[in-house]
Amino acid sequence: MAIEERPPKDVQCQCGNILRVERVRDWCTQCGRAVYHDPKDQRRHKINNIYMMALVLAAFTVLGWIFIEMIASPMLRLQ
Ligand SMILES: [Zn+2]
Fold it and tell me: What is the pTM of this model?
């Protein structure tokens, strides 16, 4: 995507490997971790990930609750 292109910049990965990043996000050739052109982007992506995880967790909680309410408790009442 053209929008994601950035001027080339050397960024040090968490593993110590330095690589040239020309996009918002690239992957380290040594450890495979995501490397961000701008540390601000990394933080934003992290927050996005946490937000997504929270959403997934909430969805599973609701599903678990529905399962218990709809399936498990009627079965327990039958015994
Ligand atoms: Zn690395």
Answer: 0.55
